Amino acid sequence: MAIIVDKVQKRKDIALACKELFFQNGINDLTVSQVAKTAGVGKGTIYDYFKNKEDIVFEIVNILMVEHNESKHEKLNSASSTREKIKTFSSIFYDEKDIELRQLYKEFISISLTNPDKEMMEFQTACTNTYFEWFQTIIDEGIANGELIESSQKFARGMFAMAEGIFISSVVTHTIDDVKKEIHQFTDALFDLIEVKQ
Q1: What DSSP assignment string belongs to 45-85?
Q2: Can you say how many angstroms the Cα of residue 127 is from the centroid of all Cα atoms in its chain?
Q3: Which residue in 5, 19, 3, 1 sits closest to 49, CA to CA?
Q4: Which of 37, 53, 106, 151 is the most exposed place for a label (fewest CB within 10 A)?
Q5: Tens of pLDDT along 91-108?
Q6: Cβ distance 36 to 43 under 8 Å?
Q7: Which residue segment(s) compose the domain that 161 sits in?
Q8: Which element (helix H / strand E) includes 93?
Q9: What's the pTM value of the predicted model, to 2 decimals?
């Protein structure tokens, strides 16, 4: 009897097997041969499941993002105000649990700035759009609940980019020592302006 292979699971297994290899070497120094050896499969098998090494990285990112999003949903559901939800939403840029995602993100930004790859740019754009829609929903709910003034939606894009900007600045310039503190200070100052006064 032939063995039935769950191709979706096999793809995940291969990607997860080489996750540490990616974090050690980065995408530029990662080779398909290394991935095959680390995953314990032949090089040809890698190409049965992935188009190229970037495709492997996309799979790793997708796995980590699913885990991250499940955790973020739980945290957002337990947050007591829109202000706290926005801080929670931005925690990807400082929470210890998200260190691997931040490392991947830095790798993607580096490649996007130095050697733009169409597929990678499209992937990043899709991820950003998905997260921004989620962010906008939080702001819309805050307005609908009477927590935020109507014009708060005009600040959504800036608020969304602010946390990312603080994180990138901390990495590139080393002028920000405490990313969490900076994000929370900005969020608190802005929410003092846009929250409905009781």
Answers
A1: HHHHH-SSHHHHHHHHHHHHHHHHHHHHHHHHHH-SSHHHH
A2: 7
A3: 5
A4: 151
A5: 999 999 888 888 888 877
A6: yes
A7: 81-194
A8: none
A9: 0.82
CATH number at residue 171: 1.10.357.10
Is 18 among the domain residues? no
Residue 59 one-letter amino acid: E
Burial zone of 40 (CB within 10 Å; 0-12 exposed, 13-18 middle, 19+ buried)? exposed
| pLDDT, tens only, 115-151 | 777 877 888 888 889 999 999 999 999 999 999 999 9
Whether the CB-CB separation of 190 and 163 falls below 8 Å is answered with no
Name the domain count of the chain: 1
Mean per-residue pLDDT over the chain, rounded: 88
For 82, the token pair is: 């829109």
The encoded tokens of residue 146 equal 């009477």
DSSP-derived secondary structure for 102-161: HHHHHHHHHHHHHS--HHHHHHHHHHHHHHHHHHHHHHHHHHHTTSB-GGGGGGHHHHHH
Helix or strand or coil: residue 39? helix
112 falls within a domain: yes
Does 31 map to a domain? no
**Cross-strand bridge partners of residue 148:** 195
Asked if residue 45 belongs to a domain, the reply is no
Query: What is the rounded CA–CA span in Å between residue 166 and residue 98?
Result: 16
